[in-house]
Design goal:
There is one protein chain. By secondary structure, the protein is an alpha/beta fold. It has helices spanning 8-20, 36-45, 76-85, 96-99, 119-122, 126-141, 153-165, 195-200, 203-216, 221-234; strands at 3-5, 25-30, 51-56, 90-92, 145-149, 171-175, 238-246, 260-268, 271-278. It starts with a strand and ends with a strand.
């Protein structure tokens, strides 16, 4: 079972010991409620570093007032058992006052990929909250690498830009989305899908893949995207967005030959699903 540390002094003590042994360090930031997608990130982290820290912290600053922070699933013991199987070296599970101490008054304010009109349109406070806690985790751990999944693609680009802009000496590594056998991107939210909704849910990745194939074959970009959104609406989804963006900046494409990413977010019943693929 990996050791669990609760305060940053213990975290830094352990990392300093690893450094003396010549080890490199990666961190996998999470909010717990771990699933196979998270565990894949942990296993992949060993391709980039000798030691792997998994942080587990339910970050209050990324929840909107209407979102129920208290209901977010917490199971540190169960998460620790899963991480033992993935051979994580250390779990950093700080209490809230270890991250946001008395009088805490600083927030990371973002532009660039954080203001792309995607997730930020529907959760305006989200990325500032993510960037603030992630910056603290990077600084507290002193890790060489940070491992994030591409499923939350906008978040990946936001964190990468934040670390670069603030001169935090860490490389942010993106890992391809982990999927079930039928293509659905793994997510903690999937547990809220009914059996019927779970069967329907794969329509998102099918729509994105079909759109990508058409775009590669030369179909007009925006017409193809609109058709993908219509197909999801027809199947009973409430679509927040289906869009094509520059894969490096999330800007709306302006010229042929740009690297493209297709991104989608849609509600199926009471569950909001997101996904994206490279073109």
């Amino acid at each position: 079972m990996p050791e669990i540390v609760r305060d940053r002094s213990d975290l830094r003590f352990t990392v300093a010991h690893w450094r003396k042994e010549g080890a490199t360090v990666a961190i996998v930031p999470t909010m717990g409620a771990l699933h196979e997608g998270h565990l894949t990130l942990v296993r992949q982290a060993f391709n980039h570093a000798d030691k792997v820290i998994v942080s587990i912290f339910v970050n209050p600053k990324q929840f909107a007032p209407a979102e129920d922070l208290a209901r977010y699933p917490r199971n540190l013991e169960g998460d620790a058992e899963l991480l033992a199987g993935a051979e994580a070296d250390l779990i950093y599970a700080p209490h809230e006052d270890e991250i946001y101490g008395e009088g805490f008054a600083t927030i990371v304010s973002l532009s660039g990929p954080a203001k792309a009109g995607l997730e930020d349109k529907f959760r305006p406070q989200f990325f500032d909250g993510v960037a603030t806690v992630v910056a603290k985790l990077f600084i507290q751990s002193g890790a060489d690498k940070a491992i994030f999944g591409e499923k939350d693609y906008q978040q990946l680009l936001v964190v990468r830009r934040m670390a670069r802009d603030l001169d935090i000496p860490i490389e942010v590594v993106g890992i391809p989305t982990v999927r079930d056998a039928d293509g659905l991107a793994l997510s903690s939210r999937n547990q809220y899908l009914s059996k019927h909704e779970r069967h329907q849910s794969t329509a998102i990745i099918r729509a994105l893949r079909q759109a990508a194939e058409k775009i590669i074959a030369g179909a007009e970009l925006q017409a193809t995207i609109r058709a993908a959104a219509r197909s999801l609406n027809t199947l009973g989804f409430k679509v927040d967005y289906v869009t094509a963006r520059n894969a490096e900046t999330l800007a709306v494409p302006q010229s042929p030959g740009e690297p493209l990413r297709l991104l989608a977010a849609a509600w199926l019943g009471k569950t909001r699903l997101i996904d994206n693929i490279e073109v």
